[in-house]
Amino acid sequence: MLALFVAQDARRAPLSRSESHAQESDLARGLSVAALVVALVGLYWAVVPHLVHQWANDDDYTHGFLIVPLALYFVWERRERLTGLPIEPSLRGGGLLGIGLMMLVLGSLGAELFLQRSSLVVVLAGLVWLILGTSFLRQLLFPLAFLVFMIPLPAIVLNAVAFPLQLFAAQSATFCMQLAGIPVLREGNTIVLANTTLEVVEACSGIRSLQALLALGAVYGYFAQKAVWKRWALLALSIPIAIAANALRVAGTGLLAHLIGPEAAQGFYHTFAGWIVFAVAFVLLLGAGMLLGKLPDGAAAPGEPKA
């Protein structure tokens, strides 16, 4: 069998010098990419599994499982544009790569998970810029930026955002119930009814639905809108829609607790109300997208023709 392969190779026409050089260049590039992949796996060997574990065990971040497949789809969807781009490595990518690696080191030394995890996005962007060039980075900017949604917020940011949202939800719910003629008293984030007391805890602050709706708004804007400003507008509108929807959910929970009893504020009723209100928020987001669709696009997104 080996002799047959040798004989076949001997009958082949010799490669030209340029073809041989091209093959060697492709081989070297392939080996470099393989080495980078191995290096990335080694650097983030402990970071990524811990991140996935949090997705699986933290209800606030179960959407993290959808982020990576969607980001990969966004890359695949750009495949024709990417294959037509020239590979022009840029040393400026080395600076961005260095920043990402510094974030990883500092995060590891300080046991700061957010810094370690977010460094992965920066490192990937730096590698694309360094190896493939600026044109590739521009085309892959959205898929790379979309990966940010998979990273849980640090506790200091979460606490700073969650408590004001708790207060706003309690205030809004109290106002709505007073309009409905229900006797209610609010003390901070606690709502006192005639037959029960409701506390708007951190889990009821709406931070979970806010993060999920932001990611959903980014995906919806990407598919539904061509203009960059419309995509940003949908992303921005996701914030007040999510906050208002959560306030409505708390008010509805208070109403049910007044009419049915304390059991309406927990268990199945509480969970089901959360899903219903999130669906309402998504419908509102769809409506906002339809209204934006009726406005003139203006500038198209980078690399895409005007609609």
Care to describe what's here?
- The chain is mostly helical and 307 residues long.
- It folds into 2 domains: 21-152, no CATH class; 156-293, no CATH class.
- The protein is 71% helix and 3% strand.
- The chain has 13 helices and 3 strands, in the order ααααααααααβββααα.
- It has helices at residues 2-11, 17-43, 47-57, 64-77, 79-83, 92-109, 113-131, 134-139, 141-146, 155-179, 207-224, 228-259, 267-293, and strands at residues 185-187, 190-192, 197-199.
- It has a 3-stranded antiparallel beta sheet with strand order 1-2-3, covered by helices on one side.
- A hairpin with a 4-residue loop joins β2 and β3.
- α6 runs antiparallel to α7, α10 (155-179) packs across α12 and α11 (207-224) runs parallel beside α13 (267-293).
- The longest helix is centred in the last third of the chain and has 32 residues, at 228-259.
- The N and C termini lie far apart (59 Å).
- Residues 1-15 have low confidence and may be disordered.
